């Protein structure tokens, strides 16, 4: 079974995808981490993340980089959002993601274009959202040193870049179930996500 989980920053998609993977005993891929790695590698090499050739030259990701804590910060998220606009970067990361999705037994992947591009044939697709205010508050709770207004501005800028780009923009697949987690605890959101997947696979 392939489960595709898409949605904007801090919508809850990562936590939901991990919980679904544990529930169904499936491997999980956080595809955002791949774009974060390319973004950070491009910046570290002195390249310009807005230049397709610079970013495309940094798509050979090594395992050590994927565990670097720097990948988790908001600066890496912003770099990821810049390099992920380039078709050459998306193409370089495509086969790895699709192979992961199609492995024997299935998988759970989360990102922006899983249900639309990477695994359009997924058995269940969830599109996770939450209001921008709630999403900024969640990120603020994770990093209380950062200014709330700056976090909200970063999230809105990233939403705009991710949704308005021409290469695999962030959008809900036609056959995806929408889950708005604005007023939900993570436990409630996970329960709802499992119920949606169950309903899909029974159809
Ligand atoms: O966890 P959060 O939602 O903040 O970010 P992420 O999932 O790690 O993704 C970081 C950035 O990578 C996003 O803002 C997108 O620009 C890009 N991305 C993408 O284009 N396609 C994906 N499948 C996953 C991430």
Radius of gyration, in Å, reads: 16 Å
Round the mean pLDDT to the nearest integer and report it.
96
Ligand inventory reads: cytidine-5'-diphosphate
CATH H-level superfamily: P-loop containing nucleotide triphosphate hydrolases
CATH topology: Rossmann fold
The arrangement of helices and strands along the chain is EHEHHHHHEHEHHEH
The general outline is globular
What is the helical fraction, as a range of percent?
Answer: 40-55%
Q: Percent of residues in beta strands?
A: 5-15%
Q: How many helix segments?
A: 10
Any idea of the CATH class? Alpha Beta
The CATH architecture category equals 3-Layer(aba) Sandwich
Number of structurally distinct domains: 1
Number of strands: 5
What structural keywords apply?
203 residues; alpha/beta; Rossmann fold; five-stranded parallel β-sheet; 5 strands; globular; binds cytidine-5'-diphosphate
Strands, helices and their partners?
Elements: E1 2-6, H1 13-24, E2 28-30, H2 31-44, H3 52-56, H4 63-66, H5 74-83, H6 87-101, E3 107-111, H7 114-118, E4 124-129, H8 132-142, H9 148-164, E5 177-180, H10 186-202
Parallel strand pairs: 1-3, 1-4, 2-3, 4-5
Helix pairs in contact: 1-10, 2-5, 5-9, 8-9
The protein binds cytidine-5'-diphosphate.
């Amino acid at each position: 079974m392939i489960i595709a989980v898409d949605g904007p920053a801090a919508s809850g998609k990562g936590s939901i995808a991990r919980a679904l993977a544990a529930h169904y005993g499936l491997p999980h891929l956080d595809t955002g981490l791949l774009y974060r790695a390319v973004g950070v590698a491009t910046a570290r090499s002195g390249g310009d993340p807005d230049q397709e050739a610079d970013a495309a030259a940094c798509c050979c990701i090594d395992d050590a980089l994927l565990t670097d804590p720097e990948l988790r910060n908001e600066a890496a998220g912003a770099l990821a959002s810049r390099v992920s606009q380039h078709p050459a970067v998306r193409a370089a990361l495509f086969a790895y993601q699709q192979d992961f999705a199609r492995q024997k037994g299935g998988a759970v992947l989360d990102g922006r274009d899983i249900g639309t591009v990477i695994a359009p044939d997924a058995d269940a697709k969830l599109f996770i959202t939450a209001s921008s205010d709630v999403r900024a508050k969640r990120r603020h709770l994770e990093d209380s040193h950062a200014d709330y207004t700056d976090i909200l501005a970063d999230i809105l800028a990233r939403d705009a870049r991710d949704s308005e780009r021409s290469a695999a923009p962030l959008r809900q697949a036609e056959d995806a179930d929408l889950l708005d987690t604005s007023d939900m605890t993570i436990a409630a959101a996970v329960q709802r996500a499992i119920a949606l997947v169950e309903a899909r696979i029974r159809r």
